[in-house]
Design a protein that fits this description.
Elements (H helix, E strand, L loop, with lengths): L7 E2 L7 E2 L3 H9 L4 H11 L6 H75 L2 H14 L4 E11 L20 H13 L4 E4 L2 E2 L6 E4 L2 E4 L2 E3 L3 E6 L4 H7 L1 H13 L2 E12 L9 E2 L19 E2 L5
Length: 308
């Protein structure tokens, strides 16, 4: 530690004080660079560098390094080219499997529709005319039967997707989202729609509209842009939608993100029945008569087995 006079104790431990002159301190602040560094900088400035042998060795090392990098790049390229047929074959196999599954699904759906029609014909023959008509009306309301009529068609489409110049990632702001289709469907229901279908997928009381990555699923079936939301309802349905909150919201998306939006009236359109509707709870509309006393039994709700 320093004493009151600024001297430093001697490292020899003999109690003597080591002092520094003013010229030493001045030279220290004037030339803070070590002499060895200064000499090296002077040699570089005078053009004196490594000798010819050192330069040849440096060039040899650089050439070997570049040759090794080139060899590695060639090997990597050959490996990529060799693996490309396998990747292409796997991709083609997956595409073929998806197409076959879609074709099988379409055939099974046609069979299910045919069986459903046969069941409906048998039911109508067993029931009286009034009961059969009431049942058909309930099926149309719940989505179990196709319906035909006039109403509105709302068309939504994705806008241009710009890519980030740095990361290359594409923005999803201009894409139609599941919440947009939910808003459109809810606005049509509120406007008096009796039946709604999105790209041919009939909506029911248990339908779901969900986002799965970049795809939108309606009752677990993918739908793609442009999205057509067709509804059967009153003649004013299209105008009410266009002038309501949903119409103003979609026009704002058009002006901000370049999305497409259109509202039109439709006449004499047919909406297919829902592909699947799982019955959870059933309750008779009128109590059945009692077999023993002839009085009416209390209504009782029954839960289906297996959600059918």
């Amino acid at each position: 530690m320093r004493d009151s006079h600024g001297d430093v104790p001697s490292p020899d431990g003999d109690g003597r004080r080591r002092g520094y002159t003013t010229d030493f301190l001045t030279d220290l602040f004037r030339n803070p660079l070590d002499p060895g560094y200064a000499a090296a900088a002077q040699r570089r400035g005078s053009g004196r560098g490594p000798g010819p042998a050192a330069r040849r060795a440096l060039r040899a090392v650089l050439a070997v390094t570049m040759a090794a990098l080139g060899f590695l790049l060639v090997v990597a390229y050959q490996q990529t080219v060799a693996d490309e047929p396998a990747r292409s074959s796997a991709h083609d196999q997956l595409v073929s499997q998806v197409q076959r599954r879609r074709a099988d699904t379409s055939v099974l759906q046609d069979q299910a529709d045919g069986l459903r029609s046969e069941v409906a014909d048998l039911r109508d023959r067993e029931l009286d005319g009034k009961a059969a008509a009431r049942l058909r009306e309930l099926e149309a309301q719940t989505g179990l039967a196709p319906v035909r009529g006039s109403g509105a068609k709302i068309t939504l489409g994705d806008g241009p997707t710009a890519a980030d110049p740095v990361t290359g990632e594409r923005s999803t702001d201009a894409r139609v989202k599941d919440t947009d289709l939910q808003l459109a469907a809810n606005a049509l229901w509120a406007g008096g729609a009796e039946a709604i279908a999105i790209n041919g997928q009939r909506l029911t009381a248990t339908s779901t509209i969900r986002q799965a990555g970049e795809a939108i699923l309606v009752d677990f079936r993918p739908v793609t842009t442009p999205y057509e939301v067709v509804a059967i309802g009153p003649d004013s349905l299209a105008g009410d939608f266009r002038d309501g909150y949903a119409g103003r919201f979609f026009r704002a998306l058009v002006s901000r993100y370049g999305m497409s939006f259109d509202t039109a009236e439709v006449h004499d359109v047919t909406l297919a029945a829902a592909t699947e509707l799982k019955l959870r709870v059933a309750e008779p509309s009128t109590p059945p008569p009692s077999a023993s006393t002839g009085s009416q039994a209390e209504p009782r709700s029954s839960q289906s087995e297996g959600g059918r």
